[in-house]
Amino acid sequence: MSNHSAGVYRRRRVFILVFGLLLLIIAVSLCLLLTRGDDQQLDAQVADIQPEPATQAEVTPNTPQVEVTPNTPQDSAAKIGDPTAGALTPQTATEPFTRDGVIVVNKKHPLPESYNPGENPEAVAALKKLIQSGKAAGLDLIDSWSGFRSYTYQSTLFNNYSASSGVTAAETYSARPGYSEHQTGLAFDLKDSTQNLYRIDDPTYKFDTDWVAQHCSDFGFILRYRDEWQSETGYVGEPWHLRYLGVELAKKVATSGKTLEAYLGVEGGDYRR
Description:
Blueprint lengths: L2 H46 L27 H5 L2 H4 L11 E2 L2 E2 L17 H16 L8 E2 L4 H15 L1 H4 L16 E4 L20 H5 L5 E3 L6 H4 L7 E4 L2 H10 L3 H5 L9
Antiparallel strand pairs: 1-2, 3-4, 4-6, 5-6
């Protein structure tokens, strides 16, 4: 190939390359223009789409959740102020606990600390008749007894017993202040001619043959504590401890052979710990 021909060939190649490059630039520019147009059209379409309004069911106010409590019946004792519901104490009780009109005092049912009725006159009159009849039947009884005790006196008595026997032992035969039947003025401890409690520590004592146990209901009393009743009454047997109920009710309770708690359907037993 001559120098002239070679020069012509080189110029053609340069021309072809430049022309091809121009075509490529034009093609790329057209693609960019077309893509931009599509994007603008898509933006316009998206702008035309409006969000649907939320329905009423979907609109939830930002309020705190409330726990739903089942409608269960409340403790009826709590409604009527029954001391069994709130474990009352002599400091929180406002009146004696009663069942069917009968005052019940035990280790579950205290009296108000300020309760101070003195000895019940009707009960004292009945007690005197019982003592006279007992004497006539040959019993060693005197016209003296341990009757009403105030909260303060019972406190001194219980503390003395606790100091000598220990609290646990003392609680089997002596009541804490505010938990003694003596504070009602309806309970009495019989005494013998030695000023001791009636038949205390008497190994021959039997409930079934003791005159007081078998006849006290004739005068309106019940024997309140027996050894076999300790789980219900909270105390060991006391042949000397009488509780006045009136003749009609006393006979019903005595005939039933039940404790006063069991007869009236009242909770008994030990203190709430």
